[in-house]
Design goal:
The chain is mainly α. It has helices at about 1-10, 10-20, 25-35, 40-50, 60-75, 85-105, 110-115. The longest helix is centred in the C-terminal third of the chain and has 20 residues, at about 85-105. The N and C termini lie far apart (about 60 Å).
């Protein structure tokens, strides 16, 4: 029953490859193995878009929303650090500092006082 449910929730083209699996775990694992490979090209495109992004003449809210979208997608694409030594907090602080700098760099020139 579980296998049937999983096969019915994916596209027909994809479910064809999973029809011959013998357990629900193997059916569940198939899409993950096939589609969860991190694409270096995708990360490259996200980083490129992130560094080219500027507020321009648009609203600050729209600029930040686009910027946050890049950050969220990159976070999903790149594996997180698993550590129990406390270095994760330092790493997260460094990421937040980098994000602040990225945000300030893309602000419109009329916001020069805010950058200071």
């Amino acid at each position: 029953m579980v296998i049937t449910w999983m096969l019915n929730t994916v596209a027909h083209d994809i479910s064809g490859i999973m029809n011959y699996k013998d357990s629900s775990f193997s059916v569940w694992s198939e899409p993950n193995e096939r589609f969860a490979i991190i694409s270096g090209h995708k990360i490259y495109e996200m980083q490129r878009g992130l560094f080219k992004l500027e507020q321009g003449n648009g609203f600050l809210e729209f600029y930040f929303h686009k910027l946050k979208g890049y950050w969220d997608e990159l976070k999903a694409l790149e594996p997180s650090i698993k550590c129990s030594c406390g270095a994760v907090k330092d790493w997260e602080f460094q990421i937040e500092k980098t994000r602040l700098i990225q945000f300030l760099m893309g602000l419109h020139s009329s916001c020069t006082a805010s950058r200071g």
